[in-house]
Amino acid sequence: MKDKKIIIITIVSSILIVIAGALIAKHYILPPAEETVNALPKLQLGGPIFPDKMRPYLLHKAMANIFSPSKDGMFVMEREILSKPLTIRIAEAVITKYLKGLKEGLRDAKLLGVYRDRKNNILYIDLSVEFRRNFSGDVEQEYYLLKSLFKTVVTNIVEIEDVKLLINGREVESIGSHFISLYGLRAVVGY
């Protein structure tokens, strides 16, 4: 009888210690859990399709610094982009604005994709062949073209440390034969 009481007291004490530890961890050690929103909200007749908690993410606009090459070097324009919560989506919006601001010919280049190497914080930008084919310029113009692209990305996306260019999904040695772009643009522009 005495052994049964000790076993029961030990089990109850263990359960209470585990519960107390879980409560302490929940309130003092672990960060507070963020409220999650259902990815597929219910459609309500006569009401909004998206919950009010999601509305800021859907229509939020942000200002981005877009660097562009010019005859005198580089200039910066502040443009409004749709800010989306994912780094890749923000990069796509920023690079699309960058391409639209380039001179005729280079403006025909299309953004084919943006890929992120999370381990090394490198952003791969895949552009159409028009970016390379339609570039005609000297060393200085190529330098400012690459530097403006690099600064546009790094300034607007803090966690990115380097940028690599792809043309139609392949690494290219150079855009205009003056700088080797295989190793990332940070090395080329000396930033």
Main sheet characteristics: 4 strands, mixed
If you average the pLDDT, what whole number results? 75
Strand content: 15-25%
**How much helical structure, as a percent, in the residues?**
25-40%
User: What are the secondary-structure elements, in order, as H or E?
Assistant: HHEEHEEHHEEH
Shape: elongated
Q: What Rg do the Cα atoms give?
A: 26 Å
Strand order of the largest sheet: 3-4-5-6
State the domain count: 2
Helix-strand category: alpha+beta
Secondary-structure topology with pairs:
Blueprint: H1 2-29, H2 55-59, E1 61-70, E2 73-82, H3 87-100, E3 111-117, E4 122-127, H4 130-133, H5 139-156, E5 162-167, E6 170-171, H6 185-189
Parallel strand pairs: 4-5
Antiparallel strand pairs: 1-2, 3-4, 5-6
A few lines on this structure:
It contains six helices and six strands, in the order ααββαββααββα. It has helices spanning 2-29, 55-59, 87-100, 130-133, 139-156, 185-189, and strands at residues 61-70, 73-82, 111-117, 122-127, 162-167, 170-171. The radius of gyration is 26 Å and the shape is elongated.
Primary descriptors:
21% strand; 2 domains; 6 strands; 6 helices; four-stranded mixed β-sheet; alpha+beta; 191 residues
Can you put this structure into words, describing what you see?
This protein has two domains: 1-33; 55-189, no CATH class. By secondary structure, it is of the alpha+beta class. The longest helix is centred in the N-terminal third of the chain and has 28 residues, at 2-29. Mean pLDDT is 75; it is low at 33-59. A hairpin with a 4-residue loop joins strand 3 and strand 4. The chain is 39% helix and 21% strand. It has helices spanning 2-29, 55-59, 87-100, 130-133, 139-156, 185-189, and strands spanning 61-70, 73-82, 111-117, 122-127, 162-167, 170-171. The strands form two sheets. It has a four-stranded mixed beta sheet with strand order 3-4-5-6. A two-stranded antiparallel sheet has the order 1-2. The N and C termini lie far apart (78 Å). It contains six helices and six strands.
